Amino acid sequence: MRNLRLVTAVxxxxxxxxxxxxxxxxxxxxxxxxxxxxxxxxxTASDAEGGWAGAGRLAxxxxxxxxxxxxxEYRRAIALGTRSESGAPGTRYWQQWTHYRLxxxxxxxxxxxxxxxxxxxxxxSPDILGELYLQLAQNVHAEGAERNDPxxxxxxxxxRRVAVDGVELTARDGPDDDLAGYRVSGTTLRxxxxxxxxxxxxxxxxxxxxxRIPQRGGGxxxxxxxxxxxxxxxxxxxxxxYDDVDGWxxxxxxxxxxxxxxxxxxxxxxxxxxxWVVRATGEHRNAEQTLPEAVLERLAAAGLSxxxxxxxxxxxxxxxxxxRRSPSGRxxxxxxxxxxxxVAFSVTRESLWDATRTPVGDxxxxxxxxHARIEAMYRPAASNWSRAAAFARHVIDFxxxxxGLPYPWPHMTAVEGGGIIGGGMEFPMMTxxxxxxxxxxxxxxxxxxxELAHMWLPMVVSSNERRRAWMDEGMTTFLENQARKEFFPxxxxxxxxxxxxxxxxxxxxxxxxxxxxxxxxxxRSGVASYxxxxxxxxxxxxxxxxxxxxxxxxxxxxxxTYRHPTPWDFFATFxxxxxxxxxxxWRSWYYETWTLDQAVEEVMATAEGxxxxxxxxxxxxxxxxxxxxxxxxxxxxxxxxxDHWLSGRRTASVTLAGGAPVIRVEIDPxxxxxxxxxxxxxWVR
Length: 685
What we know:
Radius of gyration: 28 Å
Largest sheet: 8 strands, mixed
Distance between the termini: 49 Å
Shape: globular
Strand content: 25-35%
């Protein structure tokens, strides 16, 4: 749908009309919505202050942001009561739930994983499901697989057995949907059911599989290093999301965009050689059978300690010291996790292990402060990691306070994997981070703050990363920056991200934030997904004020905890809590690549006083906040409301009556808004 806005000025007012030209399907993958076009219209009116041009003809001086119209799928969800106009979940909101029993056997010498899954899938939707979909992310490593970047070819997933409700399914390649069976297409596994799954029903799925573990798998998010370390993620058949807006989410994994996953309960067993320590998403259920007494005692002490405890030192490496011994030479490690959307685990035989605890707030409302255990696993060569546990302790504490949502799980484990990854990657209760030897303590803190922020976004507030990366990466970058400022007072983290965004915006190479993640222009995903959305949250906080912003921010997190929000839920929540229609903000900044450029054009003495002329040279409207200084030191604040610019004007004037001469005028003195040219924001006499 292409929208044009016609504007006529009559007796000093502006009338706005919308027309549509052409048509297109809503929700098209990756397609940006067109920019409104300025149109000449006939009129005999004039508006000198607005700067209308043309004898007898008026011109819209700037595009006016047209309304954000959610896609048909979202509007249908509102009509059905699963979503609401207010941005809160609807009274009929539903979601699916899955109980996983997963077994993994790690063959360290062969670099191979053998797995078995028993999956109980519960249909909480009102729909009859004739097929089920799962994700096989390791197929991004199959020969000939579709992917965005070159990746190691390992053969992908070798399915050994697939069954539903006790009936073994046969692999099918043809289009005949009337036959029960399974079909693999890229990273998607489709199960065609002999008996459709009714609302409220359950299906029991059994899958046996194996795959060769890539050294840097899933786009450097899992793998192995130096024959002494494995990090397993994207490793098991994961149920695809079936939600109330889009139905089945079957977008392929191409190695770039991350995941959208539903919530469930996970029981995980890892079979590994003795001497190899396993840490995983979830609570360790058989610690007494896998860890020696001395290690158990130190780990228990760490759970009660506000200082870091060295659970494993180099002298503890090996069977009988780091782990118990077994007659078979192998140990089974059992874990359980509730209300998570994924599981990952590490297997290491030569990693140091530090642990401590951190306060997370009052989880259960009993008035007592609860704690979570913080763990850091790192190889001795990763010298910077001696502070990793202390960093993670502060981060989990800070994020719990800032979001208003206490960290919900028993532990948070940061794992160093310098041979696999350079940055970091998040999973519930687990994160994989590079060694950061060459980048210093502050850089390791930054990436820790970022990856652990993902425990809230999207591990609890579970948005669709595959399509809208800014909802997790941008909001996480914002949260990371707030933690940085507390840990390193005076840290300019917000302004650094703003300058990263502005550098690209000035170049004209920016891409729209609302594009689907895999369809961002090459090299432009980082700004659209990380630095720009983080910058916009700072601008939104400046627009609304800290108190109102935090109320809206925490309301969104609270209402969508363990649910699946969309961008339109986020927009509507801020509109509701602020009591404002912020559609102009969402349209200008999230859908477009418009930029802000406000300037002090002229300051002059007149018979009425001092007249200050402001021009808005960009396309993105924002209120203009002025700090005016007189020669006698008096400081005066004025604001030109955003509605002035939304009327289509390019200039505005402010007149100060009498008083001492004005010697300085500055736009946005607090630096809250991302103006592309701050040199023209200041006038000095």
